[in-house]
Amino acid sequence: MSSSYRLGPSGGYGGSAFTDDVLGDFERIKQVTIRHGSVIDGLQITYETKDGTTHELPSHGGSGGSASNFTLDDDEYITGISGKYGSLVDSLRIKTNKQESDRYGGNGGSADFDYQVPDGYEMVGFTGRAGSKIDAIGMVIRKRT
After folding, report:
1. Using one digit for the tens of pLDDT, what is the confidence trace for 14-50?
2. How far apart are CA 68 and CA 60, in angstroms?
């Protein structure tokens, strides 16, 4: 398994730090669940292993807002995340090698974040800070295999 690297995070200083652990049998992100209302309330990644079984990484943030699932095709991978933040992450958009998601969250935030993976890399997890909401967000990336 190749090494992973962190980009970010951007956002506020509340909550507790988190970084998704990319397990040795991790193959690819299958789905991202985003809980959102006026801000990003929570995030969780569902991933697929090399033998085709699916597992969920620990969820971050709280259970407020509405849940939206961003599902990836078998040949799709995340190449970037962007949005706005202040003391919390106000909005989030996910970009893949094939598409860009809707904007999740609200219209607040005084600063922009935009993380893009270098060529030949992919996102494999989130890093940031969270309590009952997502306070800060960034990406865990690795070289594509």
Report:
1. 999 999 987 678 899 999 999 999 999 999 999 999 8
2. 15
List CB contacts of 37: < 8 A, sequence separation 6 or more. 64, 65, 66, 105, 106
Domain at 4-143: CATH architecture: Aligned Prism (2.100)
Nearest to 83 by CA among 44, 126, 118: 126
SS (H, E, C) 25-84: CEEEEEEEEEEECCCEEEEEEEEEECCCCEEECCCEECCCCEEEEEECCCCCCEEEEEEE
* DSSP code at position 100: B
pTM of structure? 0.95
pLDDT class for 3, splitting at 50, 70, 90? confident
Identity of the amino acid at 41: D
The residue whose two tokens read 């991790």 is 26
The predicted structure's pLDDT at residue 77: 97
The answer to whether the CB of 109 falls within 8 A of the CB of 83 is yes
> Which residues, in sequence order, are CB contacts of 119 under 8 Å at separation 6+?
none
| pLDDT for residue 1 | 45
